[in-house]
Each structure stands twice: as C-alpha cells, then as structure tokens.
Specification:
Number of strands: 13
Largest sheet: 3 strands, mixed
Strand order of the largest sheet: 4-7-8
Radius of gyration: 31 Å
Structural class: mainly alpha
Shape: elongated
Distance between the termini: 57 Å
Helix content: 40-55%
C-alpha cells in the first residue's frame, strides 16, 4: 500500500504477498526439524530458484514504478526545477528550469490554439455554410435501389443510396447547381429535377467511423496512462526536501549499498557516470504547484482533444477522410514531444535521459534477498497455483482495453447528446436544427465545457430535418 508522501511497503513473504485473504493453513507446509535441511536444499534447487525469480519479476513489474516523460515537455518541467532545487539553484540549471516553464506555456498555447480552431470549424464556421451535423444520416443504408427509415433520409428529404451519397462540399455544390438551373429556367423545373440529381449528404460507412474513433481513443488512452503516472508520482514520493542527485552505489561484503564517491578512479569508468539523477522526495508546495500548473492543464488539454477529435471524426463522411483524419489527430498529441525535441537544450535532453524511475517496491530489500528468500516469497504454492477463471478473464480483457471501450462510448454518446436528437421509436440519431452563430468569437470555456458555456446562436433556424413520412 502506498500512502501519500509515505514510504513504500517492504516485500512481504509467503502467500500473503499475493492475497490478504489467503488461508495460511492451506498453503503452509508442516515440516519436522529433521526435514528442514532437506526441504531447504530442495527449495533452493537452481530450477526452483529460476522459477521463483521469473515469478518475482512478473510481480514486481505489476507493482511497477513511476517515472517522468523523458521525451515530453511535461517531463522537463518536473525534472529541471527539482534538479535545480537539489543543487541549491545554480544559475545554469535555474535558467534551464525557467526555460522548461516557458516552453510548457508555449506547448499549452499551441495545443490550445490548434484545438480551438478545430472546434470553431466544426461548431461555428459550418453553420455559415449551412452544414448540419452528420449524426446517423446514411448509417447502414447499403441498398442501391431503395432504402427507407430515418437513417436513410438525407438533409434534402430524399432517400439515401450508395450511388447518391456525397460529402458535404460535393453535395452542396450539386444542390447549388440544381437550384440555379431551376431559377434560370423556371418553366423547366420539373425536367431539371428529373435530370439533375444533387444526391444526398451522408456517411459512407457507419462501422468505419466507429473503428476510427476507437483507434483514436487508443492513442488518448496512452495520455491517460501518462497523466496517471504523473499523479502517482506526486502522490507516492515522500513529502520531503530530498535530493534528486546521488552517487551510484555498489554493494559491500554484507550486501548493503554504499555510495561510491571515487567511481571516477575505477578503470574504464568516466567521471560523468559516477552520479545519477533519480526521482526522489518533493516538498508539498512543489507537489501542489506541479498538480495545479502541470497536471491540471494537461488534463484540460486532453479533454478538449478527446471531445474535439471525436466530433471531427464523427463529422467525416467519407471512408478516406475518416482514415486520414484519425491519423492526423495524433499530430496534436505529439506537439508536447515536438516542443521538447525541437526547442529545449541538450542539457535538458541529457538530464531527462538520465532520470531514473521511482520503484513502488523497496529496491534495496529486494536486492538483498537470498535465493531462499526469493523461493519463499515468490515460489510458494500460492504463487505456483493454476490461474483462476477470473484471472484468465482479466488477462484476456485488460483494464486498459476496457478503458478504451469506455472512453469511446462516452465521447460518442457526448457527440450525439450535444448535436443530435433521437428520432422517436427508431433509435436513430438525426441532426438538430441548425442555428447560425452571430459571431466567430469563442472562449476557451466554450470549447472545454460547451454544456455549461454554450455557443451563442441566432434564434432563426437556418435548416431543419425534413419530415420523415415512413419511419
């Protein structure tokens, strides 16, 4: 168990390492005094030790460790100030710490501006061109002869078929041409209507849209992992003013680690490899500062990226557009890495590459374990038992996969809830009435929390879904 700012639990022994509810009597082995040596020799057989070590590696990897993002500006803005603090603020590292804060602001500004423009395009500018939200128009309308029902009725009120399906730009141009011809030759409106078919605006593939949103959410899930690791780091490290710099260690004759301040005198060891940079304790005020100024903005950018990206994909009608746009959205997530790789100094790159992770298990005690301790801790009967059905299910359906599915369902539902209306009795989502915004001015809160800070729209309806006669 990890307490905020507390120490890590030592590695437990026996079956209790795996479950607190384990019945000790079920997994204990009764041994007489005469059998102790024989059982100890059998337990420490090389094959048993090897099995126990493999199981130990698996368990420790599941317990894991916390680390900073070594290729992101978010990692730089955490590491560089702590490094400068550990060295009592020398001018060179203080300058690098200030640079990392400046580039974090630059990164947030770039990502925020990019997402604001994308949000404006989908929610404001489309209204001026008369573009309604796509919702479920054209979903599963696969017949090229006749389709009926709410999902197969287009914005012009006619049936949607694959041969009459176009993206909005093509459909609006064809509709403009047909209406222009009818205006120029009003006496031949019926002939023009029968010969010039503008088609309908609808999606090409319902399931491709879901697939692209799911893949986009997989990239967003990686950002969720990064934010979780950052929060876990702020929670787990001690609330103490510890140095993030230390000499590398070697083991003495008793197995204990001691600092080696004379490492540079060893043959073949460069002096700059004598010290290491590692995540360590952090004062409470630094934790609060990183929480408010680093983790919270990262969370806000993530939410805006997820909601805006899903809307962008749901509004992509063509299959090619869906695939290309799902790949293009990953560019937004890579801005933080691009800023770090491009504009930060080589000093920052070097320090980030040298920063070691913070294990959530007691590394010192694990290193001092004998073969007998390893077998008793990781090679017990409880550890060697067959896997249960519940554990097999958890292995087949990982938590992160469930997280991706949950995020996909939530943000797609949010898109339908904000921009579409449910057609009565059909389960089909159709576009809401189109209102044009009186201005293109937006605020960040309009994009971040549109439900609480909605975009101001004119009262007049620019377009409404034609009445569907036969559901």
């Amino acid at each position: 168990m990890i307490t905020p700012g507390g120490s890590r639990d030592v590695v437990q022994t026996g079956a209790s390492l795996y479950s607190e509810d384990t019945d000790d009597a079920e997994y204990s082995i009764d041994k007489s005094d005469g059998d102790d040596d024989a059982d100890s020799e059998l337990a420490c057989h090389p094959s048993n030790v090897a099995k126990a070590k493999i199981l130990g590696i698996c368990l420790l990897s599941e317990r894991g460790s916390v680390y900073v993002e070594s290729r992101s500006i978010y990692g730089a803005v955490i590491v560089m100030p702590q490094l400068a603090r550990s060295m009592e603020w020398p001018s060179r590292l203080t300058f690098e710490a200030l640079r990392s804060v400046y580039f974090l602001i630059l990164d947030l500004a770039l990502q925020g501006a990019f997402l604001m423009y994308l949000f404006e395009s989908d929610n404001v500018m489309t209204g001026f061109s008369g573009k309604m939200f796509l919702c479920d128009m054209g979903a599963l309308c696969q017949s090229n002869t006749a389709n009926s029902g709410p999902a197969c009725t287009g914005p012009a009120g006619t049936d949607i078929t694959p041969g009459r399906t176009y993206d909005f730009g093509t459909w609006s141009t064809r509709s403009f041409l047909a209406s222009s011809l009818e205006s120029i030759f009003p006496g031949q409106a019926d002939a023009i209507g029968s010969m010039v078919d503008p088609g309908e605006y609808a999606m090409e593939s319902y399931w491709c849209r879901w697939l692209c949103v799911f893949l986009f959410m997989m990239t967003m899930m990686q950002e969720v992992t990064n934010m979780y690791d950052m929060g876990l780091l702020l929670w787990s490290v001690p609330n103490r003013d510890e140095s993030w710099i230390r000499f590398k260690h070697h083991h003495d004759s008793d197995g204990a680690k001691v600092a080696d301040s004379q490492g540079s005198k060893k043959k073949g060891t460069p002096w700059y490899d004598d010290v290491e940079l590692t995540v360590a304790g952090m004062p409470v005020h630094w934790k609060i500062l990183n929480l408010v100024c680093v983790l919270l903005p990262k969370l806000m950018i993530w939410k805006l990226t997820a909601s805006t990206g899903v809307t962008f994909l749901m509004e992509s009608a063509g299959i090619e557009d869906l695939v290309v746009n799902s790949v293009a959205l990953t560019f937004i997530l890579g801005i933080s890495e691009m800023v770090c790789e491009t504009v930060t100094s080589e000093t920052t790159h070097e320090m980030l590459s040298r920063c070691k992770e913070y294990p959530l298990w007691d590394h010192r005690k694990v290193a001092q374990m004998t073969d007998s301790d390893i077998v008793n801790t990781f090679g017990s009967k409880f550890a060697m038992r067959p896997i249960t059905y519940l554990e097999a299910l958890q292995a087949l359906v990982p938590l992160r996969f469930l997280g991706v599915c949950g995020l996909t369902i939530f943000f797609v539902w949010n898109y339908y809830h904000e921009h579409c209306r449910l057609y009565e009795g059909s389960g089909t989502w159709l576009p809401q009435d189109l209102h044009v915004a009186p201005t293109t001015e937006l605020t960040f809160m309009n994009a971040l929390l549109p439900s609480l800070y909605p975009i101001r729209k004119d009262g007049d309806v620019a377009w409404t879904m034609p009445k569907i006669l036969s559901p």
